[in-house]
């Protein structure tokens, strides 16, 4: 399964000029799994409590840990490393403190670490920056996954003629292009889907298939296939074999018991009448003979 990301509140290194570093705060996921050839979204947020900063005055960038000139994202792509051009973008608005980074078409060497850096311009049109801050103490590291995880299947025992559900779920780290789940049987009307964030940076997509199994479905396979978004087709699947149980039916017990009890009652009644009849006859004979 995907590893659980850890959130860290980073301390700030001031690059210029030395003014109140403690005023700037950032929350960055420190490590994440990333599927090669797919995509990943790195959650990141920052704040500056003393003033509202408009997006137009902010310049966000992501760079390699040891060299802030090795940019993997910047608004001016001519300054970005050639290997990352067209593959990175910021999500949300910097003015609202969102510095989340999306990387698409993940390469096996995109492991980082990568750090966020913010520049504050004097005016909205000024190209010169007033302040520059890099959050470098805790940057994000990506753990490369060459193959996707297999989806997990959860279910109860199927019973003939009763509604039966199978849940297929898988973890991922790219909510902007979430995986697609398909089934080997059923239609769209038989499926419900949900998508939720387990914790920051880690998401789960689930698909629930509902149908009524028949006797003929026993020993048949049901397969769940997950398609991960990317430059090429990336799929993973899991399957289960149905073992359909018959509905619980006690008629084969109840009917014989009722018949037996009925027969016993009739036989007992006949015996009672016969005993009563012959007892009366014996009494009459005794009175006639005096014995």
TrEMBL record:
Q: Where is the signal peptide?
A: none
Q: Which UniProt keywords apply?
A: Membrane, Transmembrane, Transmembrane helix
PROSITE patterns, alphabetized = IG_LIKE
Q: Where is the Ig-like domain?
A: 151-241
* Transmembrane domains' residue ranges: 250-275
According to the lineage, what is the superkingdom?
Eukaryota
* Keyword Electron transport among record annotations: no
* SUPFAM superfamilies from the UniProt entry: Immunoglobulin (SSF48726)
Q: What's the protein name?
A: Ig-like domain-containing protein
């Amino acid at each position: 399964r995907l590893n659980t990301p850890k959130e860290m509140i980073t301390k700030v290194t001031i690059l210029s000029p030395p003014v109140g570093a403690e005023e700037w705060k950032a929350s960055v996921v420190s490590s994440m799994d990333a599927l090669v050839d797919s995509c990943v979204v790195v959650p990141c947020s920052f704040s500056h409590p003393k003033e509202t900063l408009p997006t137009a005055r902010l310049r966000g960038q992501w760079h390699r840990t040891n060299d802030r000139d090795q940019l993997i994202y910047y608004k001016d792509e001519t300054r970005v490393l050639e290997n990352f051009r067209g593959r990175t973008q910021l999500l949300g608005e910097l003015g609202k403190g969102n510095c989340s980074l999306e990387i698409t078409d993940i390469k096996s060497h995109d492991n980082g670490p990568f750090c966020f850096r913010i520049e504050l311009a004097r005016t909205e049109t000024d190209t010169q920056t007033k302040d520059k801050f890099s959050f470098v103490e805790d940057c994000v590291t990506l753990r490369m996954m060459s193959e996707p995880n297999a989806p997990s299947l959860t279910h109860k025992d199927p019973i003939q003629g009763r509604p039966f559900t199978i849940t297929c779920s898988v973890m991922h780290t790219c909510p902007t292009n979430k995986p697609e789940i398909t089934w080997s049987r059923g239609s769209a009307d038989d499926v419900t889907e949900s998508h939720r964030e387990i914790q920051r940076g880690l998401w789960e997509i689930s698909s629930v298939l509902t149908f009524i199994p028949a006797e003929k479905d026993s020993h048949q396979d049901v397969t769940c296939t997950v398609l991960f978004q990317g430059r090429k087709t990336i799929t993973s699947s899991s399957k289960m074999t149905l073992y359909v149980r018959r509905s619980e039916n006690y008629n084969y017990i109840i009917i014989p018991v009722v018949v037996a009890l009925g027969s016993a009652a009739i036989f007992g009644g006949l015996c009672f009448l016969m005993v009563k009849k012959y007892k009366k006859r014996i009494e009459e004979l005794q009175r006639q003979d005096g014995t």
